[in-house]
Amino acid sequence: MALMIIAMLFVGVTMVASLHLRPLLIDLHRPLGIAILLLVVLRLYNRLRHRPPPLPADLPAWQVLAAKASHWMLYALMLAMPLIGWAMLSAGGYPIVLGGGLHLPPIVPHTPALYAALRNAHSLLAYVLFATVLMHVGAALFHLWVRRDGVFQAMARGKD
Fold first, then answer.
1. Is residue 108 a contact partner of residue 87, using CB atoms and an 8 Å limit?
2. By residue range, what is the domain housing residue 104?
3. Of 78, 84, 125, 151, which residue is least crowded by CB atoms under 10 Å?
């Protein structure tokens, strides 16, 4: 799932920057966003049902707080990004077509001003998500190379 999200961020940047690749990337971006939304809902459900492994007992309190806050920030952003994207397209009057010709219904009314606001929010939150992912990777590498406390191994197995 992490690779999907990182790929999605790069697809989004390339989609905006390249007129030549834009149509192809839009056709990839929309269904991938919906797939991420569904996977995040499942992952969040699993996270709420099963506690994550405990953090090391000697971890400073500020790092425990940062770890918990960053996890919930990632979940919030992973939910918000596709929902805002869907709402943005709905407000712009653009269809969301998935494989097999399946059309998703609009979730907000067609409103140009709302489209503009949601487009700005989607772009801004993409930067916030990218920064949060980079901090998460940095923290993982800190646990691997500096603390050597097994947290990275748990994350790599998907048990964070």
1. yes
2. 2-156
3. 125
Rg of the chain over all Cα atoms, to the nearest angstrom: 18
Say how many Å lie between the first and final Cα of the chain, rounded: 13
Block means of pLDDT (10 residues each) for the chain, 160 residues, are: 90 92 92 95 94 88 94 96 98 89 95 98 96 93 91 73
- Strand pairing partners for 104? 96
* pTM score of the predicted model: 0.89
| 64, 55 contact by CB (below 8 A) | yes
d(CA 24, CA 22): 6
Rounded-to-integer distance, Cα 11 and Cα 29, Å: 7
Task: Return the axis-axis angle of helices 22-49 and 2-17, rounded to nearest 10°.
Answer: 150
Reported as half-sphere exposure (CB side, CA atoms, 13 A), residue 141 has a value of 6
The length of the chain in residues reads 160
Domain count, the chain: 1
Locate 29 and state its tokens: 């971006």
